[in-house]
Amino acid sequence: MWKKLPDGWEAGFKRLAAKGDRMMDAKELKIGVVSCSGEDCLGGTVSRLATRKMIDELRPDNTVTICLPLFLAGGQEERMFAKEFPTIAVDGCDKACARRATEKYSGKVSGAILVSDLIGGEVAEKAALSTRDLTSEHQSMVDNVAAEIVRQFDAILDASCQEQSKNTPSSCGCGCSYKC
What pLDDT does 40 receive? Predict the structure, then answer.
């Protein structure tokens, strides 16, 4: 169900850690998304479905999901990824378990989304439901949360591209950083 870490992720960590090495191209950058694993409320369901949409449809080449239960159980790959790569926490409610866990074990997240802020606290606290029972209203909620993940995701990519362009001349010579 979760997208595995990309091939060569260990080399990516080493490359990031090496002083003087080139920055990772923004097109190569992987961004982690840690979604809520709460099974008792609609906010958790919407969080997971929006994250899944990122992997399957919206940003499949740059998105890596991080399994929150494995992360909490001490999964070193998940923790190292979140420490070395930008990570967005998508929490179903104001308990913010995904954000808090990521910040406790790996450092500050690059983005954080509270589904309850986007769909309303009362709605987010409603009982979870099966994907077979999703209505068009629920799908609209998933789409809205996915759109916010994309907004934050693209802001992280843009910031990475801008940082890279400070250190690398543009390919066309005008300074526009077209390489990104």
Answer: 86
Is the pTM for the entire model greater than 0.90? no
Phi, psi at 61, each rounded to 5°: -80, -15
The mean pLDDT of the chain is 82
